[in-house]
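Sat 14:20. Reprocessing the chain from the morning session after the first attempt stalled halfway. Input below, unchanged.
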Amino acid sequence: MKGTLFNVFGIAIVIGLLMLLSAPVIPKPPGRKAGDRREAINNAKQIFLALLDHQERYGSFPNEETMKKVAAEKGIAPFSLTTSNDYFRLLLAGGAASEKIGYCRYPALPTHRPDNVISPLEQAFAKGEVGFAYVANLPADAPADTPLLVAPLIPGTLQFDQKPFDGHAVIVFMDGSAKSMTIRQDNGLVMINAAKTLFDLSAPCWKGKAPELKYPAR
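Finished this time. Tokens:
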């Protein structure tokens, strides 16, 4: 009798283990930072498409010359282009549909989701509604690997904030490709290869000329 009980108990344990092993594996939901990074990549791609549309309409990416054309066409007063918010506002003035594309979560700025209030134009892309830095006045023939949109870049620096996207930066290049790139923990820089950083002036894409970085308004 005693041996039978042990056998029954052993069989129950084996059955339990088999059931445990055969149970479906429920994937762990992605962390918030990974989701924020994907959202930033998607929004950056939409900005890139808006930049291409602006170029098609007015001859180049947003700049002082396209400002004159948009102002004359739309009957608006020209405004200064000093922050990435201003450049993206010019995209809206030229026909882009939504300011929601400027958002990426960056608590240190801090950013918040755009309210999509774009009229009057002065209220579009208000402070806190843009998280991307923009490299302005790039020539039309800039190399495909030239960075165009970057986040989360610490304003006034070439260093990236490691916290928002769990040690990653979001970079969109002139060819429209969007990448999640690792931020070095020791200095906050992003490497394009073993020797050069993203904004290294010796990199072929910069041709020795410092990029005109336009940071989000703060």
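The radius of gyration is 24 Å.
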